[in-house]
Amino acid sequence: xxxxxxxxxxxxxxxxxxxxxxxxxxxxxxxxxxxxxxxxxxxxxxxxxxxxxxxxxxxxxxxxxxxxxxxxxxxxxxxxxxxxxxxxxxxxxxxxxxxxxxxxxxxxxxxxxxxxxxxxxxxxxxxxxxxxxxxxxxxxxxxxxxxxxxxxxxxxxxxxxxxxxxxxxxxxxxxxxxxxxxxxxxxxxxxxxxxxxx
Amino acid sequence: xxxxxxxxxxxxxxxxxxxxxxxxxxxxxxxxxxxxxxxxxxxxxxxxxxxxxxxxxxxxxxxxxxxxxxxxxxxxxxxxxxxxxxxxxxxxxxxxxxxxxxxxxxxxxxxxxxxxxxxxxxxxxxxxxxxxxxxxxxxxxxxxxxxxxx
Lengths: 198, 150
Hints:
The structure holds 2 protein chains of 2 kinds.
Chain A: E1 3-8, E2 11-16, H1 21-27, E3 51-56, E4 59-64, E5 75-77, H2 81-97, H3 102-111, H4 130-138, E6 144-147, E7 154-157, H5 159-165, H6 180-192
Parallel strand pairs in A: 1-5
Antiparallel strand pairs in A: 1-2, 3-4, 3-5, 6-7
Chain B: H1 3-12, H2 20-31, H3 36-46, H4 50-59, E1 71-76, H5 79-83, H6 86-97, E2 110-115, E3 127-129, E4 132-134, H7 142-147
Parallel strand pairs in B: 1-2
Antiparallel strand pairs in B: 1-3, 3-4
Helix pairs in contact in B: 1-3, 3-4
């Protein structure tokens, strides 16, 4: 593995080839906000909150740090006026879906996001994909997946698998940033295999 | 649709998971929709999780997860057809078939959809049934067109 040196927030950081900017920052103790990242899972780039500014030549470009690979001599900024402004809007959009999520509220305080900026569209799921990917990649049970597309996209349990496997696992529950996953499971249980809960 | 026919379609594609969409399309065009049993069989045969198959089948508009009629009726609601009275054609077809756009009748004869442009604006208002274009249809003429399908 080749050693790479890059610069994050005016701090020289050692990283290995193939790491992402987010991982390099974390190893140096630099915190970057994120919702869809999990160390055991393949990077997803779903929430976009971890975006950072990367210098390339005379310009800076915005990249999503959880899917951007480190390069030698890369100069990265994790906070700037521009980044904060974008993160604030992203948080406001997410809060329109899940206004009561603790994780989102904490970040909203940090970035000054107003949860009433946009009309409420309470779908509660923010499509971070943590449950879907955890079930597929770590547990390899595939009890929960995405269905439909665009604004109608949602998570959906496969009742036949969920009734057998989920009771004894539930490892994805604490991963969900909004508690929508628990609600979706209870709903599936009530509709498809209610005898287990009575 | 029986299992042998599904297996036959899968085998035509060398049972490779990468041809999942092709197989689903072929089943869709023969069966007009994808029942749960079919998706489960395809999932088992390809060793692709059912969640993935469901994700794909619900993502593309070409797939239907509810039964479709033998004849697909598409009514163009594009600008050119609209000004030539596509709304009235749609209302007439809805009255004649008893179904609204996006629905299928109980006899599984017709499925009705509105589309936004079929690309032959000079023929407007256009109604397409099973890929055959009926141009310059009139409200009185729609009944004849629909009656010519069994």
